[in-house]
Amino acid sequence: YKSSMSCHTRALLISIGINMAMVCSMLFLASTMQSGAAHINASLNGSVMRSRPLVSTPNFAARSAVRHNVVANAGVRKFFVGGNWKCNGNRESIKTLIDGLNQGAPVGPDVEVVCAPPAPYLDYARQNLRKDFSVAGQDSWVSGQGAYTGEVAPEMLKDIGCEWVILGHSERRHLPEIKETDQTVAIKTKNALDNGLGVILCIGELLEEREAGKTIEVCERQMEAVAKTIKDWSKIVVAYEPVWAIGTGKVATPEQAQEVHDAVRNWMKQNISPEVAASTRILYGGSVNPGNCEELATKPDIDGFLVGGASLQPDFLKIVDSYKQAAVVQ
Q: Residue 261 catalytic?
């Protein structure tokens, strides 16, 4: 009897143990599943919470724009506005012009402004013109000082405070009394750079060349002469000036100007380097005025202007302000 009871007891205890083990296993499994589900939900909820501010925060667009601009501004070409006063004015009129320009609001860090008075007034202009505007010569000689009657050596310009010089302007290329060649412009460019000046290098086609479909060919030829002579382009600004638009009141459409600027930049990319192409500023010149500058400034490859007649008026400051319309360049 005791043996029988002992067997029954052992069987009962074993059964109870098995049942308790199964219950524990089920409880553990349920707990694990609940914990896993909670973890998954927490992860999902965390993802939603992390993404929610990007969707629902009112300032998301502003923050996104800031991030975009930070990336874009890494390669931005500073807008450049040059005023070529050419062979105009006297001491009195230049004083009046300088006084008017000096009354304008300070320019910001996003634009560079350069004025190029006639040679006899360069020193006077540098002494009296506002200090946030630079001064440029309108031409310089192929070499240094010496027996070159009537010429101006680049070191002379540097000595009186000029930071820039205009070279290759169409009037010097095409006036029958001067007729500078592409090679002469290239030599002058190298000499100016070697003496510490920045160069505003002018290129552009005649009306008959445009009508013959040779615009790009002419601009590339003029660029090539310089590219064969110099290596460092960091202090060169290219100014595309269609000769048929200079002083005529005719202006290349923004689309025409952009087309040429884009072609010149692509030529630089292929024949100099992608880095030079991306960093070199290309200006438009040709009857630029306060009425057309803002639309031109929105084109991605127009990095500023070289202004002729309109730079002799106080309204030149309105053209300077067109930098605010400029497209952000990646």
A: no
